[in-house]
Amino acid sequence: MEAFTQKLAAIRQDVLRFAKIQLRDEYLAEDIVQDTLAAAIAKHSQFRGDAGLKTWVLSILKNKIADYFRSHKYTVSLESLQEENDAIERHYDHCFDENGHWQLADSPQNWQPAPEEAVARQDFFRALENCMQGLPQDTARIFYLREVMGWDVEEICREFAISKDNCYVILHRARNGLRRCLQHRWFDLAEEEGAGK
């Protein structure tokens, strides 16, 4: 048991960083990570080692965060999101034609290195985490619940008291914001580094 506890201590900072990004509240993140680690210790006999320890602990954390969101109803004010999201929209107004299709010059480019290779690198995850922090708080929460936690749009709409149309707009803006940020912070830098070699 002592060896297991030491392994948990070794991954605590990574788990805490993940929680802080999702919750945007340092003290709440600390509390939920403590609950998560306590649950991992209580369930240590269930850990079979099929997945890595960090993956297993993060799955417990994701459930704890989902439980937190379910127990705290959020109401999203679209007006409060509008100002922050307008900046994202301004970057993309010129990217689409009158039918909503990408302009050829502005369409998503093939990212180098390939996404499969980039995902395997820890630096990519740090860039993604930084980009998530740049999104408006409710936009990041809704994106996280949909794309990471796999919640249905209907479930998100109930939790945040928004319409499906509003949810899809928020998700669209989140994806565009993350795409732009990752293009700048990760993929463009990777290309520059590759060209410098």
UniProtKB/TrEMBL annotation:
<dbReference type="InterPro" id="IPR036388">
    <property type="entry name" value="WH-like_DNA-bd_sf"/>
</dbReference>
<dbReference type="Pfam" id="PF04542">
    <property type="entry name" value="Sigma70_r2"/>
</dbReference>
<keyword id="KW-0805">Transcription regulation</keyword>
<dbReference type="InterPro" id="IPR014284">
    <property type="entry name" value="RNA_pol_sigma-70_dom"/>
</dbReference>
<dbReference type="InterPro" id="IPR007627">
    <property type="entry name" value="RNA_pol_sigma70_r2"/>
</dbReference>
<dbReference type="GO" id="GO:0006352">
    <property type="term" value="P:DNA-templated transcription initiation"/>
</dbReference>
<dbReference type="InterPro" id="IPR013249">
    <property type="entry name" value="RNA_pol_sigma70_r4_t2"/>
</dbReference>
<comment type="similarity">
    <text>Belongs to the sigma-70 factor family. ECF subfamily.</text>
</comment>
<dbReference type="InterPro" id="IPR039425">
    <property type="entry name" value="RNA_pol_sigma-70-like"/>
</dbReference>
<feature type="domain" description="RNA polymerase sigma-70 region 2">
    <location>
        <begin position="12"/>
        <end position="73"/>
    </location>
</feature>
<dbReference type="GO" id="GO:0016987">
    <property type="term" value="F:sigma factor activity"/>
</dbReference>
<protein>
    <submittedName>
        <fullName>RNA polymerase subunit sigma-70</fullName>
    </submittedName>
</protein>
<feature type="domain" description="RNA polymerase sigma factor 70 region 4 type 2">
    <location>
        <begin position="126"/>
        <end position="175"/>
    </location>
</feature>
<dbReference type="InterPro" id="IPR013325">
    <property type="entry name" value="RNA_pol_sigma_r2"/>
</dbReference>
<dbReference type="GO" id="GO:0003677">
    <property type="term" value="F:DNA binding"/>
</dbReference>
<keyword id="KW-0804">Transcription</keyword>
<dbReference type="InterPro" id="IPR013324">
    <property type="entry name" value="RNA_pol_sigma_r3/r4-like"/>
</dbReference>
<keyword id="KW-0238">DNA-binding</keyword>
<dbReference type="InterPro" id="IPR014289">
    <property type="entry name" value="RNA_pol_sigma-24-rel"/>
</dbReference>
<dbReference type="Pfam" id="PF08281">
    <property type="entry name" value="Sigma70_r4_2"/>
</dbReference>
<keyword id="KW-0731">Sigma factor</keyword>
